[in-house]
Amino acid sequence: MASSSDSPRVRQVRPATEGWTQKKDAEGRPLLQFASPKRGKPPVHLADLTPDERQTKVKDLGMPGFRAKQLEKHYFTHYTNDAAAMTDLPASGREELVAGMLPHLLTEVKRLETDRGDTIKFLWKLHDGALVESVLMRYPGRITLCVSSQAGCGMNCPFCATGQAGLTRNMSAAEIIEQVVRANRLIAEGGLGDPRKLGHEGERVTNIVFMGMGEPLANYARVMQAVRVMTDKKNGMGMSARGITVSTVGLVPAITKLANEDIPVTFALSLHAPDDELRDELIPVNSRWKVDEALDAARAYFEKTGRRVSIEYALIKDMNDHGWRADLLGDKLNERGRGWVHVNPIPLNPTPGSIWTSSDQATQDEFVRRLEAKGIPTTLRDTRGKEIDGACGQLVATEDDERVAAETPPE
Ligand code: SF4
């Protein structure tokens, strides 16, 4: 399918795992896990509940319902679950109330700072020992947190470290929210630069990307509860829905469901290949829903919400970075109309000796040029804080992390 304009370089590297074996199903295809394995559930937390349910639970704990509002304020605005700090609550029964409503969820195992303190990667241990990560990034004018939505992932992409061990379990809504609260607490304490010196007092996470561990739309109900809490101005975090990006490798029925929610989040489709031949190997869920179906669902998302859709495209040397693929992608997007989409090519980090390595600069530039020539708005994205960026996953606990985690007592 390579056009003559691609010559002389027509090398085609096929996706393959390196250093691990992909699990296969009975038909020999990469195994896809949609259902979360049954494990002990994390304790129910205020952020898992609707405002009415919070009041009911507070009453069950022997306090008047209005105390729920105070707890919301402490947790979502002051980022605390420390009963001692909540002096507006009666001393008698306070500990029990806070323990019942704001149970401990995440233990920090490790914190890694890069980019001169502008990027912080957190490794968290969940109540059952499962490990997840989040990445906090300061950009000019915004602070973005990349959150995990599942421990592990069941989508089995051959380039992805997260997918290798399969899906451990879905995270609860509160475990997702707690990542944001902890990041906000760190920012307030000056962990991302002294807020007074920077003139940024009161700043907090402004943007959320669901591009950490997991496939967010495979954990639909909990991710949507988390998004509701993030955007709830009265009883939640009061963030802008536009600043929240929900990404997927292409779970088409869930994209349709998302379009029908009344929360206009930014939607990102991690496409990575415009042709089924390659995408079947690169993104195994493509065996379920093909490129055209995923693009149709993305277009329908735009029609329903009026929100421009992002297409994420990791540029992998000689695998998916050919000029003809940029042309094909441009054509497929234009077939579905104009002005509804933009493309974010993401160069991988150079990994010498690996087939999963970055395209060279000239190839990246040519890929962008071809998309732009077809009238597609295109922005080369950076990969801060991640080794390989498939726009989700690539966050994984190493053996060393596992050891440190085992030695870290709950906070
Ligand atoms: S790339 Fe994303 S969808 Fe694929 S296995 Fe990794 S976390 Fe899951």
From TrEMBL:
PANTHER family (UniProt xref): 23S RRNA METHYLTRANSFERASE (PTHR30544), RADICAL SAM CORE DOMAIN-CONTAINING PROTEIN (PTHR30544:SF5)
Cofactor or coenzyme needed: [4Fe-4S] cluster
Protein name: Probable dual-specificity RNA methyltransferase RlmN
Compartments, as annotated in UniProt: Cytoplasm
Gene Ontology BP term (one): rRNA base methylation
Extra facts: Reaction proceeds by a ping-pong mechanism involving intermediate methylation of a conserved cysteine residue.
Species assigned in the record: Microbacterium thalassium
Positions that bind S-adenosyl-L-methionine: G214, E215, S247, S270, L271, H272, N349
InterPro entries, per the entry: Aldolase_TIM (IPR013785), Methyltransferase_A (IPR040072), RNA_MTrfase_RlmN (IPR027492), rRNA_lsu_MTrfase_RlmN/Cfr (IPR004383), rSAM (IPR007197), rSAM_sf (IPR058240)
Cofactor detail note: Binds 1 [4Fe-4S] cluster. The cluster is coordinated with 3 cysteines and an exchangeable S-adenosyl-L-methionine.
EC number: 2.1.1.192
Gene3D superfamilies linked to this entry: 1.10.150.530, Aldolase class I (3.20.20.70)
